[in-house]
């Protein structure tokens, strides 16, 4: 993860010859009564030492009449930056490593060199050399709840190491202290992000600058973001920013900037309402169950407080850190769908009504912004911005469809069940279709010779379609009315009887009975009313049922047998 403050990459950039830096280090040590264990190597033709002479020349960078205080500030800052860069070039160069290792071995102490960076087993950074070198960086933790490693301290000359980032929900490590003669404090590590609505880890404090001559306090680490809430739960609070390190330098140096507070976690989305159960005549008279309402979204987490700017003994206090922004509220949960009504049965011909759809929940409110840090430079640091509200639901639960009416064997078909009403924004359920009318009874055969058969019975009326459910109050569409049932088929007419035998001509056979009239089609259901808001529309009227098919006419009876001829009627009868 990236470093905020004085990362190692900026400590060790190249610009000058390594041998010149070693000579400069020896010169500074001699100025304070510190003799090197070995003389500086002789300057070669390619070693540029003019910069060292210019730095300590009485007129270096000073024009006549210039402000002594301003000149001193520039001198302190520029001197440390150049010397620190040259020191790092020397320490990390192949020649520097070889010579420094020899010096350290002869002295029996770690005099020149950077501290070792922290590891998983040893998370804290090692100390820099007693004379020259930066402290090692703390280890960035990957395990939840484990604090980041602390940065190592510098010795006489060098920067403190940066604190490591904390694991999930844990604080960042503290920056290491700067060198006692010259050196900046290390930056604090960032706090880890909270887990499942947990609080974000606090940022580590910046390291103090303890230098006698020059040193700035390290910047405080940023607080970790609060964890996102579980379903319907609030987001976690952002972690507080770390305090900036103090500058205790006797000559020059400013306090470190406070770390920014972490952003509040996002509220969890509301749960979707449960769907209604299907209708059942055994337990709820065939009506579908009403759906559950959607859950409310969780509130966004509060932003973390900004860290305080570091104090300064002879310079400017550090800027206060900004408060973290509040988290966004969770989205509203959707309403469930109403249960479907049970289809009609022989025992319960009419279909059951559909269940009502559920209403959506409320969106969660945004979290408050965190407060800016206090205690540093006056007028610095800003409060965090409040989080936005969650997304409102614009789709309520739909009503359940009505159950279909029973197809009658005889008589009128069962009526379709009414559709359930939609929840807010939801559509009404469609009405159930009417059942088919029963078949008409068959006509009986005629009685006696040449009798006409009886007419077939009329088919049953088709069942009425169910009414569509009303749309939701905030704009759902009404459900469509159910289709009317088809009328029943008319009964078959009875057969005519055979004609009687006659002495001359056979009797006439009876006529077959007329087929029964087809049943009347059922009335289509009424469409459901649209929602009260402007977007809802009424449902369509259900289609009326078709009329039943007429019954088949009965077969006519056969004519009677003619009589035999006689003396008075020579010809036989027909």
Automatic annotation (TrEMBL):
It comes from the Bacteria. Residues 293-373, 427-468, 511-574 are annotated as: Disordered. It holds the Pfam family PGRS. InterPro entries: PGRS_rpt, TAT_signal. Residues 293-342, 351-373, 511-565 have a biased composition (Gly residues). This is PE-PGRS family protein.
């Amino acid at each position: 993860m990236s470093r905020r403050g004085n990362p190692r990459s900026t400590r060790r950039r190249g610009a000058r010859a390594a041998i010149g830096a070693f000579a400069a280090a020896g010169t500074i040590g001699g100025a304070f009564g510190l003799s090197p264990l070995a003389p500086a190597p002789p300057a070669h033709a390619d070693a540029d030492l003019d910069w060292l002479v210019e730095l300590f020349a009485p007129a270096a960078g000073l024009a006549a009449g210039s402000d002594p205080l301003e000149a001193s500030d520039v001198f302190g800052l520029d001197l440390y930056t150049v010397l620190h860069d040259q020191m790092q070039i020397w320490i990390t160069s192949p020649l520097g490593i070889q010579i420094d290792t020899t010096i350290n071995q002869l002295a029996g102490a770690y005099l020149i060199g950077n501290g070792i960076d922290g590891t998983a087993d040893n998370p804290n950074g090692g100390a820099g050399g007693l004379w020259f070198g930066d402290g090692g960086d703390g280890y960035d933790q990957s395990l939840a709840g484990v604090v980041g490693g602390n940065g190592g301290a510098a010795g006489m000359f060098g920067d403190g190491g940066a604190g490591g980032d904390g694991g999930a929900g844990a604080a960042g490590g503290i920056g290491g202290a700067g060198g006692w003669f010259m050196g900046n404090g290390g930056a604090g590590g960032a706090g880890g992000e909270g887990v499942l609505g947990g609080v974000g880890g606090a940022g580590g404090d910046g390291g103090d600058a303890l230098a006698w001559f020059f040193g700035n306090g390290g910047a405080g680490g940023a607080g970790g973001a609060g964890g996102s809430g579980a379903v319907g739960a609030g987001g976690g609070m952002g972690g507080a920013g770390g305090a900036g390190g103090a500058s205790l330098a006797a000559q020059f140096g400013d306090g470190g900037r406070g770390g920014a507070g972490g952003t509040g976690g996002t509220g969890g989305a509301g749960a979707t309402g449960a769907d209604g159960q299907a209708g059942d005549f055994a337990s709820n008279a065939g009506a579908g169950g009403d759906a559950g309402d959607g859950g409310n979204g969780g509130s966004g987490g509060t932003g973390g407080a900004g860290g305080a700017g570091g104090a300064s003994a002879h310079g400017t206090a550090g800027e206060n850190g900004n408060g973290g922004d509040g988290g966004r509220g969770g989205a509203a949960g959707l309403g469930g769908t109403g249960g479907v009504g049970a289809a009609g049965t022989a025992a319960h011909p009419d279909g059951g009504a559909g269940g009502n759809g559920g209403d959506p929940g409320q969106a969660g409110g945004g979290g408050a912004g965190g407060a800016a840090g206090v205690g540093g430079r006056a007028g610095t640091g800003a409060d965090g911005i409040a989080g936005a509200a969650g997304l409102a639901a614009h789709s309520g639960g739909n009503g359940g469809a009505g159950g279909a009416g029973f197809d009658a064997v005889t008589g009128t078909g069962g009526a379709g069940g009414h559709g359930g009403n939609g929840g807010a924004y939801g559509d009404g359920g469609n009405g159930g279709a009417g059942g088919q009318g029963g078949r008409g009874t068959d006509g009986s055969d005629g009685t006696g010779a040449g009798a006409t058969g009886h007419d077939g019975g009329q088919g049953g009326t088709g069942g009425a379609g169910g009414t569509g459910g009303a749309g939701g109050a905030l704009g759902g569409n009404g459900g469509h009315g159910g289709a009317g049932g088809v009328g029943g088929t008319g009964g078959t007419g009875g057969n005519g009887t055979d004609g009687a035998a006659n002495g001359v001509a056979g009797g006439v056979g009876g006529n077959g009975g007329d087929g029964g009239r087809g049943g009347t089609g059922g009335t289509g259901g009424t469409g459901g009313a649209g929602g009260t808001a402007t977007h809802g529309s009424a449902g369509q009227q259900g289609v009326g049922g078709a009329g039943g098919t007429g019954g088949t006419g009965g077969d006519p009876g056969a004519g009677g047998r003619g009589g035999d001829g006689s003396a008075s009627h020579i010809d036989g009868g027909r």
